[in-house]
UniProtKB/TrEMBL annotation:
Transmembrane feature ranges: none
PROSITE patterns documented for this protein: WWE (PS50918)
Organism domain of life: Eukaryota
A Pfam cross-reference name: WWE
Signal peptide start and end residues: none
Protein name per UniProt: WWE domain-containing protein
WWE domain mapped to chain residues: 1-67
Length: 253
């Protein structure tokens, strides 16, 4: 954890601590296991000996860090899941697109795959898809200043490429569940689908994020579609968005 109150060296300010992301913690623990004195992260470096993190741009900007053992119950919420969603779709995506998202359709076209060519059925595709997914994650991470996180995620996926589709899918599901830039970017892009003004945005991510999404979408374990399930998501909506969703509920077609 890192000390996050405005002035970490103040004697009068209440002390506040913030968690590193899940992926940052994985990077940190790997470096500690290798007995390295410092750990490079995106934007800053941790000095284990002096128990501080300092900015990569200005070494004088430092904050204390500490290592703690977290309880299973200490599972801080991913706040982005409850943040205001700026895009209100004009219609229900499920009723319009059915089982296959237009994003997945475009991914298959971009990769030159036939309709029946999916990772679960065509296992010879897996190494190629894994490598393209890894490269796409790295490219997206570098674009937003998360190169170290991206490299870690990509390498974790690459390790699984010769272990079969089930292990690859489990890895993709695990990576998506981690606190990192990846799930935030994927959620952001998926929310653009169905909004004509943002179609160019999600289409621009087909090449980079598409292979990972295809691997995650083609679930080889849960083969039977589940129905009659309730999915809850907390979000702050404007009056206009509420009206849109009410209209969609009344006229889902």
């Amino acid at each position: 954890m890192w000390q996050s109150n405005p002035n970490p060296w103040s004697k009068s300010e209440p002390v506040e601590w913030s968690h590193y992301s899940d992926v940052e913690n994985l990077i940190i623990e790997e470096v500690l296991a290798n007995k390295q004195p410092k750990c490079m992260l995106d934007g800053y470096c941790i000095d284990f000996k002096h128990k501080v993190q300092f900015s990569n741009a200005d070494a004088n900007k430092q904050r204390p860090v500490k290592r703690v053992v977290r309880n299973r119950e200490d599972n801080h919420l991913r706040q982005e899941l409850f943040m205001f969603d700026p895009i209100a779709p004009l219609h229900s995506l499920g009723s319009t697109y059915g089982w296959v998202s237009p994003f997945i359709v475009e991914v298959r076209i971009d990769l030159g795959l036939r309709r029946e060519q999916l990772p679960f059925k065509s296992t010879d595709l897996i190494p190629m898809l894994v490598e393209k997914a890894a490269q796409g994650i790295i490219e997206e991470g570098r674009h937003i200043g998360k190169a170290y996180e991206a490299e870690k995620l990509a390498n974790m996926l690459r390790v699984q490429q010769d272990k079969g589709i089930e292990e690859v899918w489990k890895c993709c599901a695990y990576l998506y569940s981690l606190e990192s830039f990846l799930y935030k970017k994927l959620n952001e892009i998926m929310r653009f689908i169905g909004s004509e003004g943002y179609e160019h945005v999600w289409r621009s991510k087909v090449r980079t994020l598409g292979p990972f999404c295809l691997l995650l979408w083609d679930d080889p374990i849960n083969k039977q579609m589940k129905t009659n399930m309730k999915l809850y998501r907390g979000v702050n909506l404007t009056d206009e968005q509420l009206a849109t969703y009410e209209r969609m509920a009344k006229f889902p077609g």
